[in-house]
């Protein structure tokens, strides 16, 4: 009976401890979100950056319009400035893992008259350039994972131009260190 009581109290203690860790992780992510909103408020107002927080991750979605010209992987000057500011904030926040993912819409590549014959190649090049700018501004490259999905993970309908614009994006997924 003493063993059962001991194990039960250990289990309760672990649950409380882990619950406290989860709360601290969420608080850290909320703080990063707040700092990003303060530093990049114009881009948020324009709709070029959106964020969504889950329990252990913060997802930052950046529109194609802010970062790239249609069909290009070269980051525009305003996009470079935004990524520089993000790189500094991300470095200070110390994340366990950062995933940078390139996404596209379902429109045919010829619709954008670009040099990329495959959307995956364009998404990879865009994600790679995004990571390059973040790393040049202090982001630790050891915990960065590069991903590209083409048009297989839409967040809006590809039937409308507005939906296709939303699907052409870079997502940065930030996973907090456990406290």
Write a structural description:
This protein has helices spanning 2-39, 41-45, 64-67, 77-93, 119-136, 161-167; strands at 49-53, 57-63, 95-103, 144-150, 169-176. With 179 residues, the protein is an alpha+beta fold. The chain has a single domain (23-176), classed as 60s Ribosomal Protein L30, Chain: A (2-Layer Sandwich). A 5-stranded mixed beta sheet has the order 1-2-5-3-4. Strand 1 (49-53) and strand 2 form a beta hairpin.
Task: List the keywords.
alpha+beta; 50% helix; five-stranded mixed beta sheet; 5 strands; 60s Ribosomal Protein L30, Chain: A
Compact overview of the structure:
By secondary structure, the protein is of the alpha+beta class. It has one domain: OmpA-like domain (60s Ribosomal Protein L30, Chain: A), CATH 3.30.1330.60.
Average pLDDT works out at 82
CATH class: Alpha Beta
In angstroms, what separates the terminal alpha carbons? 34 Å
Helix content bin:
40-55%
Shape: globular
Q: Remind me, CATH topology? A: 60s Ribosomal Protein L30, Chain: A
Query: What is the CATH superfamily label?
Result: OmpA-like domain
Biggest β-sheet description: 5 strands, mixed
Label the structural class. alpha+beta
Gyration radius, to the nearest Å? 19 Å
In DSSP terms (H or I, runs of 4 or more residues), the helix count works out at 6
């Amino acid at each position: 009976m003493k063993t059962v009581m001991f194990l039960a109290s250990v289990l309760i203690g672990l649950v409380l401890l882990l619950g406290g860790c989860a709360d601290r992780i969420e608080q850290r992510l909320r703080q990063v979100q707040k700092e990003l909103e303060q530093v990049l408020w114009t881009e948020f107002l324009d709709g070029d950056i959106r964020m969504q927080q889950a329990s252990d991750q913060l997802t930052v979605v950046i529109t194609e319009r802010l970062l790239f010209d249609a069909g290009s992987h070269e980051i525009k000057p305003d996009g470079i400035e935004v990524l520089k500011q993000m790189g500094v904030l991300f470095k200070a926040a110390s994340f366990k893992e950062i995933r940078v993912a390139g996404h596209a819409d379902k429109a045919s590549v010829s619709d954008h008259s670009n040099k990329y014959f495959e959307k995956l190649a364009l998404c990879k090049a865009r994600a790679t350039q995004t990571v390059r700018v973040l790393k040049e501004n202090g982001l630790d490259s050891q915990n960065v994972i590069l991903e590209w999905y083409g048009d297989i993970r839409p967040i809006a309908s590809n039937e409308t131009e507005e939906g296709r614009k939303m699907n052409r994006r870079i997502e940065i997924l930030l996973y907090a260190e456990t406290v």
